[in-house]
Amino acid sequence: MEKKFKRTTVTSALPYANGPVHIGHLAGVYVPADIYVRYLRLKKEDVLFIGGSDEHGVPITIRAKKEGITPQDVVDRYHTLIKDSFKEFGISFDVYSRTSSKTHHELASEFFKTLYDKGEFIEKTSEQYYDEEAHQFLADRYITGECPHCHAEGAYGDQCEKCGTSLSPTDLINPKSAISGSKPVMRETKHWYLPLDKHEGWLRKWILEDHKEWRPNVYGQCKSWLDMGLQPRAVSRDLDWGIPVPVEGAEGKVLYVWFDAPIGYISNTKELLPDSWETWWKDPETRLIHFIGKDNIVFHCIVFPAMLKAEGSYILPDNVPSNEFLNLEGDKISTSRNWAVWLHEYLQDFPGKQDVLRYVLTANAPETKDNDFTWKDFQARNNNELVAVYGNFVNRALVLTQKYFNGCVPACGELTEYDKDTLKEFADVKAEVEKLLNVFKFRDAQKEAMNLARIGNKYLADTEPWKLAKTDMPRVATILNIALQLVANLAIAFEPFLPFSSEKLRKMLNMDTFEWEQLGRTDLLAEGHQLNKAELLFEKIEDETIQAQVDKLLATKKENEAASYKANPIKPTISFEEFEKLDIRVGTVLECETVPKMKKLLKFKIADGLENRTIVSGIAQHYAPEELVGKQVLFIANLAPRQFKNGLVSEGMILSAENFDGSLAVTSLLKEVKPGSEVK
After folding, report:
1. Beta strands in 456-611 (DSSP E)
2. Among 163, 206, 283, 378, which residue's beta carbon has the most beta carbons within 10 A?
3. Which DSSP helix (H) or strand (E) runs through 72?
4. Are 446 and 497 in contact (CB under 8 A)?
5. 314 with 308: CB under 8 angstroms?
6. What residues are paired with 654 via a beta bridge?
7. Within the chain, how many helices (H) and strands (E) appear?
8. 3-state class of 85 per DSSP?
9. Pick from 67, 88, 71: nearest CA to 21
10. Quick one: how far is CA 1 from the chain centroid?
11. Which pLDDT does position 660 carry in this prediction?
């Protein structure tokens, strides 16, 4: 039998304060968490939504070093940006704090000390890379080298960003320190470990037997880890940025970020509710739900529960709805490559369109497998669904009511069979949406809400009240009453998904609030109730707006290609005598023209110091003919003539350099020389 809880604590993965939030984070964690919390609040349930920034760890120190600022400067900047972006986007946290707060430092230290005093850790000495020039141990991210799998340069000690493989620093070929560039050496260091193997028995039962209802991706990943056998995991790190390990002999060591970050959920709750926070974390009648991305499954389902169990007084999570990854235009979202749609930039580029992005990310949510965000799909869903279905139905119902009844809700007369069938169709919507939201199927739940608008559109199209207005106004009144009740239901059904649009719609309906309990009712708007002026709920997004976003991404792709450019290997060595056989000369371009039916070719007339010669070159896509007339170029003068299908003969080859992006640049001289001059 399903357990009934008195309250629900909802956490969403703490975003890393090393950069802004992007659509992958939103689709994976924050939009589904917000939908769920808004739904519980609408049902008048007791719920707390906890968020905050994760502000410790190596990537922050790397960015600080790179920019010549302190780690605190970095986290202050991004914590503020992330917090403000979430607020503007409508992610409705009850608290959004940070792991650099005093409350968090105290609670995390206390948590460690409790486990330490209970003998829950083991101490181990191991060998780790050490930078002799910088005089410090190197965290995994401070070690770079060649990936042993794809052989890309610049792979990190914990992961290769090129092929995505998880690594250990010792896997890298030719490792070097990211701090000094020197080759690191192995040195002994002591750390504290949480012996996960000791917890394997109860974890196996708790997950594999007691929580078979968890999403397949979560259950499967946990089973895989458990089947491989759990290993002790370090909870401390040699670093100077973070929470100092609060025991003697731990100078220069901090709590490992994976250990301190999830405690942030608890410390943020304590910051919000200093007197009652324990109720939300220790009372068995509290349900704990973690919303996370798939890269955090193991931490939230195995590691954090082991920490909580070892401490002894905390509840364990009841569910961990984790999404897969969202890709962008067919490529993996990457912060380091700037391949992302950043939330703060979206809010600037699309003011007032928070709900459009919320809708698209939910409709395309990677709930069971990785999914892809494209700007064309974003535009299509806005124009063909939000505008053409939802917005269109609302607008027609309100505008027709304004036209025929001065914006007053008309009386509902006798119902036809078709009216009854229509009302029956949406009577079950509440139960259907609830059933889906209760099992975290947000994509299907939103689709169910949109079906209400489809029913409404079909109803108006089939009954055609604008035609009946000439002969049967009582019938028009009934049709519009039913249509308006449907509109009011839409305002409730979409409240968790599209809060800004629901608020706008309630204002148009002249209704302050609706209760979730009212969803499915047909008497939400009383006869004679005065509506406000109709406005467009959504607006069409034009091609040029979308093209601007596509162009922004294409520019990023070019920048990335330029940044990662590596010259091709040098060809096999040749003798000087072989090189001397090539006669490379300078020629002046006298004429240049395109070749009919040969779009890649340009025909040159070149002065070579002896006579004029014709050279045909495949550079038409890179230069306009007039750009090259009068220019001096290098060409190979002693190549055998080459005949083309159209009868053209080329008497040489113009030398060009191929750039990383495939573009060609004709070689030229720094100062002018006589045509026919030889290249030595």
Report:
1. 584-595, 598-607
2. 378
3. helix 71-89
4. yes
5. yes
6. 635
7. 24, 25
8. helix
9. 88
10. 37
11. 77
Q: What is the DSSP letter of 440?
A: T
Quickly tell me which residue has 């519980």 as its tokens: 40
Give the position of tokens 């890309």. 152
Distance CA 86, CA 96 (A): 9
How many other CB atoms are found less than 10 A from the CB of residue 401? 25
Query: Quick check: 671 and 626 in contact, CB under 8 A?
Result: no
- Say if CB 531 and CB 487 are below 8 A apart: no
Helix (H) / strand (E) containing 558: helix 543-563
Give me the residue label for tokens 């395109």: 594
| Torsion of Cα atoms, 274 then 280 then 285 then 288, to 10° | -170
Residue keyed to tokens 């990936």: 147
Nearest to 97 by CA among 304, 266, 302, 311: 266
Residue type, 438: N
Q: How far apart are the first and last CA of the chain?
A: 89
Give the C-alpha separation, 116 to 128, whole Å: 23
Q: Which of 70, 79, 99 is nearest to 18 (CA)?
A: 79
Q: What's the token pair of residue 567?
A: 């010259």
Nearest to 232 by CA among 260, 192, 186: 192
Which residues have CB under 8 Å from 466's CB, separation 6+? 400
Range list of β-strands (E), 546-618: 584-595, 598-607, 612-617
Q: Tell me the β-bridge partners of 10.
A: 49, 289
Exposure string for 403-428, b = 16+ CB within 10 A, e = fewer: ebbebebbebeeeeeebeebbebbee
Would strands 286-293 and 322-323 be described as parallel, antiparallel, or unpaired? parallel
Question: Binding site for Zn(2+): which residues?
Answer: 147, 150, 160, 163
Query: DSSP of 326-389, one letter per residue?
Result: EEETTB--BTTTTBS-BHHHHHHHSTT-HHHHHHHHHHT--SSS-EEE-HHHHHHHIIIIIIII
Sorted by where each starts, the structural domains of the chain and their CATH numbers stand as 7-120+195-323 (3.40.50.620), 122-193 (2.170.220.10), 388-530 (1.10.730.10), 576-678 (2.40.50.140)
Quote the pLDDT of residue 216.
94
Residue stretches of the annotated binding site for ATP: 335
Band the pLDDT of 2: cuts 50, 70, 90: low
For the cut 60, the answer to whether the pLDDT of residue 479 exceeds it is yes
What's residue 555's pLDDT? 87
- Distance between CA atoms of 290 and 309, rounded to whole angstroms? 16
Rounding to the nearest 10 degrees, give the CA dihedral for residues 239, 245, 251, 253.
-20
CB neighbour class for 273 (10 Å; exposed up to 12, middle 13-18, buried from 19) = middle
Q: Quick one: what percent of the chain has pLDDT higher than 70? A: 99
Structure tokens at 79: 């914590």
What is residue 295's DSSP assignment?
G
Token digits of residue 397 = 């119902």
Known binding site: residues? Answer: 147, 150, 160, 163, 335
The answer to whether 475 touches 413, Cβ cutoff 8 Å, is: yes
Q: Which residues pair with residue 606 across a beta bridge?
A: 589, 613
For residue 570, what are its two tokens?
């040098």
Q: What is the pLDDT of residues 411-420, one digit of tens each?
A: 999 999 999 9
Per the CB < 8 A criterion, the answer to whether 346 and 328 are in contact is no
Residue 15 burial (CB < 10 Å; 0-12/13-18/19+)?
buried
> Residue 240 corresponds to which amino acid?
D
This prediction has a pTM of 0.85
